[in-house]
Amino acid sequence: MKWNNIEKKWYLTCAKGLMIMAVAAGTLTGCKGARMGNGTVNQKQTEGQENTETRIDENQSDGQEEQGDAKEKDNSITIGEPPTVEGQKITIDEIAVSLEPEDEYTSWDESTAVKIELHDNGITINGQGANAKGSMVTITEAGTYVLKGTLSDGTILVDASDNDNVRLILDGVEIHSETSAAIDIKKAAKTIISLEEGTINSLSDSPGLIYRNEEKEEPNGALFCKGDLTINGTGILRVDGAFNNGVSCKDILKIAGGTLEVAAVNHGVKGNDALVIYDGQLNVTAVGDGIKSDTLAAVLGGDIQIRDWKEGLEAETVVIHGGKIELTARDDGINASTDGANTPQIYFMGGTITVQAEGDGIDSNGSVHMSGGQVIVHGPSGRENGPLDYDMEFELTGGVLAAFGPGGMDQNV
Description:
By secondary structure, the protein is mainly beta. It is 6% helix and 48% strand.
């Protein structure tokens, strides 16, 4: 599609930031106003309009009524405080996630680390805290474990105590399991997976995976963790979730380094209490959502590429404070939704985000807040969706926003 000048650029100079918005519907039509803090910046088309100011005032009034109705409908939902980011710590409401010293990659001690060599014809373990039975390695104590080698049908099971921190050094492993997760972290206070420099590591499961806990549907990822999980280092980790998710964590998932290449028949990377990306490169291809968290999904850094069939990035609260994100979605690009009592929120505080979506580009069942960063949205071609969709308000106090799409679902910005 070719764009003429008025379709390509529409500049609005705002009090504390610059918003760039383009809407394609033959010519620019249907945009109702820009909400800046407590004020509104009126917009006017520059060609072929009559009685423009009257129409904008009417649309602005309609938009305020629509937002008022939405707030009345959502008055039973709790709206929390906005997030704060201080260094490597993000806090929102009762959730606080920090990058602790043990979450960052550090060299390991050859004299104390347990060495585990993986082979189909036998597994060797040099050290205490782990045992092997057939093609399964079970780790039962805190410590550092260095894994190397190949299992064509095997599992690394972590079954330590609730107070134990376990560190797995992946030093060139290829693990596939026909009946379980390649790495199944059943119990530990925290597990840290370090990707050694210069190594390529791969984990995969099978469509025939059997739950060890059917009631809780565990494990449900080729890399599964029931507790907190951190991934760091500079190596490469390839994860293929042929049964359900690629990487699945039931508590707090932190990604602090490495290159992750994830493919999954459901969600690519799935967190529960929180999923925070500090650094690293992520390339995610998923049939479900690309990156998903039940509560908080935050991006503070890193280089992320997502290609999926549903939502690209989804959580109850989405916070983007840094990094680079490029995502393509068959449904919504970035989505905030909930099954609980909290109001879904999206916060753009920094970073560079490019969205291509066949559904809504940015979709919040609550509000969207933008105070920094650069967001470019290439919305759907159909008029049943739009580049921006939210139930309550879009609060703009800074940053750069460009949204391209049809005029079928225009909303205030």
